[in-house]
Amino acid sequence: MYMGKKILLAAAVAAIVSGSAFADDQGSGKIKFKGVVIDAPCNIAPDSVDKEVDLGEVTTAVINANKKSTAVPVDINLENCQLDDPADETDTPITKVDVTFTSSATDATDTSLMTNTFASGAQNVGVRLLDNAEANITLGASNEVALLAGSTTQTLHFKALMEVLAGKTATAGQVEATANYVLMYK
């Protein structure tokens, strides 16, 4: 009986060891999940949290003649909006949002023009943000946008373009700039 238990134990150990030999690692990795719970009437859609906007290509001849490229859309998408705030004692619905854009890299003479931060990229070219009517946005100042009453999704429309720095001539190369934004509902 004692010998039978030893054989059974040896067989179990052999099965465990051989099982791990058959389960070779054929690739592994790590997935990091992150999120934030916010106290706001809408949340920013995942496609608008860290957004990349392609400004396209423009020749040096065209940008130097026109001083800017064609504006492209920059939309910030909001979802799960509850504009009638049940916690608001005045029962006043939220109808607007102030959007404030900032950048750590701006032109010395025009602080609302973001400078090109791409190393060895185009020289004397920056990126300008515009409102939906294509008026220049002042970085650091709030831009009021009306919200659609009763809609659970909202799209805040802006535009961006490449622009030649004042009194300069643009050279060829890649252009990159980064703007941060903050929303304040009212």
Q: Could you characterize what this model shows?
A:
With 186 residues, the chain is of the alpha+beta class. The chain has a single domain (43-185), classed as Fimbrial-type adhesion domain (Immunoglobulin-like), CATH 2.60.40.1090. Helix content is 17%, strand content 26%. It contains 3 helices and 8 strands. The chain has helices at residues 2-22, 46-49, 60-66, and strands at 43-44, 72-79, 96-102, 113-115, 125-131, 142-146, 154-164, 180-185. The chain is flat and about 55 Å long. It starts with a helix and ends with a strand.
Give the terminus-to-terminus CA distance.
81 Å
Helix content: 10-25%
Largest sheet, strands/sense/barrel: 5 strands, antiparallel
Please give the number of β-strands: 8
Tally of separate domains:
1
Our count of helices gives 3
Mean pLDDT across the residues is 89
Strand order of the largest sheet: 1-2-7-5-4
**The CATH C-level class name:** Mainly Beta
What is the annotated CATH architecture? Answer: Sandwich
Low-confidence stretches: none
Percent of residues in β-strands: 25-35%
Structural class: alpha+beta
Q: Do you know the CATH topology?
A: Immunoglobulin-like
Rg is 28 Å
The gross shape turns out to be flat
Which descriptors apply to this entry?
single chain; 186 residues; alpha+beta; Immunoglobulin-like; five-stranded antiparallel β-sheet; 3 helices; 17% helix; flat
